[in-house]
Amino acid sequence: MPAQIIAIDGPVASGKSSIGKRLADRMGYLFFDTGVMYRAVTFLALRELGSAQDTQAVTVLAERAHIDIIPSAVDDGRDSTILAGIGAPGQVAELLEDITWATRAKDVEDSVSLVAAMPEVRRILTEQMRRVGLRRRVVMVGRDVGTVILPEADLKVFLTASVETRAQRRFDELAGRGQARQLADVLANLQERDRIDSTRRVAPLRPAPDAVVFDTTDMSLEDVLERIEQLAK
User: Fold this and answer.
1) For labeling, which of 93, 115, 148, 217 is most exposed (least CB within 10 Å)?
2) What does the buried/exposed string (b/e) look like for 175-202 if buried means 16 or more CB atoms within 10 Å of the residue's CB?
3) pLDDT digits (tens, 9 = 90+) for 170-214
4) What does the alpha-carbon distance between residue 153 and residue 140 come to, in Å, rounded to a whole number?
5) Reduced to 3 states, what is the DSSP secondary structure of residue 127?
6) What is the mean pLDDT of residues 77-89?
């Protein structure tokens, strides 16, 4: 029987989202990028609080936030649609807005690792992610899917690549969206995010003991996809 729950982890721009989305499409599975949850909370914090620095305030906001990830009905390059709203304490938000591209803004990019390192925010969002993942037939990608969110996944994959390769990939991705950045700035951002993700006290970035590790520095994403698909089947 094919793997029903597939976890793909790895650092920023390691190819996990591109590969995970194509794998999910090929197998007819739900694609769920856990990073969008943290991006959504980061965006809401920056808009509502003016900053994502105050751990207590961001945690309270995360408890009130309602975030939904649905298949995209818009052909604009998005992998899925992110809907979000803020309700009164203990209540679901009545009005959800599409914040898909807002979560990709530079200020969100610069602050998301900080928010993702907040223990209570991780706890709140991990519970929501598990509910989605345990419905089965899912490809879930992130930093700690195989180690924390879905340790019972049937197949665990960890993708990595040199930071220079990953910076070039992210630079090209941003350029394709018309978002001009200096390559040196992209590289510095990735190095800082790697440091935060790998050294945080709760759920640090690392492969699960039973994960299959791929270094994609000198591999095409198509080659990696083919090998993971064979393992999944």
Assistant:
1) 217
2) eeeeeeeeeeebbebbeebbebbeebee
3) 999 888 888 878 999 999 999 998 998 888 887 889 999 999 999
4) 10
5) helix
6) 84
On the CB side of 175, CA atoms within 13 Å amount to 10
Pairing of strands 212-215, 65-71: unpaired
Range of weakest confidence among 77-91, 98-112, 137-151: 77-91
CA distance 137 to 189: 34
Instruction: Give the pLDDT confidence score for residue 62 in this predicted structure.
Output: 95
pLDDT at 92: 62
Domains of the chain are: 1-29+138-233 (3.40.50.300), 30-136 (3.40.50.300)
Partners of 7 in beta bridges: 140, 156
